[in-house]
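ARCHIVE CARD
Drawer: 12
Card no.: 0347
Subject: one protein chain, sequence and derived structure
Cross-reference: see card 0346
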Amino acid sequence: MSVIVSETYLTEIGKIKIFATPTAVVKIEYVEEYVNVDNGNNLTNLAAFQINDYLLGKKVPFTFPYEVKGTEFQMQVWKAISEIPYGETRTYKEMAEKVGKKCTRAVGSACRANPLPIVIPCHRVIKSDGGLGEYNGGANIKKKLLMIEGAIKI
């Protein structure tokens, strides 16, 4: 197993901790405390730079290498979510139909298990009634991300 390093970064939406191996970013999480036990690497720094550009409203692609692991179903959901265009949203129901399932709760569970929020844009998945739904960074962060993309207005 490759050594995983991490570093915490202060961003426009709060603190995020980025985890990476020598070859790929493997996890991003929202954190409350600004504590570094490890030091990052070039990949964590590149990811933080690109995420900050995104959070400043620059429509930039994420070009840093990343790797995700999950169940076959989670991987299908994450791939489908990754295809939602910038500035657009889809419902949990639409995502369930896209991956050939009827259970919107399973899509919600896959979103909660997403190891790379922002990069795999689960924030673009909303409830059928137009409500935001849940987000592993909290409703306020989800709302901010959608506002940055112009998907919702104040």
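Annotation on reverse: The first strand starts at residue 5 and ends at 11. The chain is about 35% helix and 15% strand.
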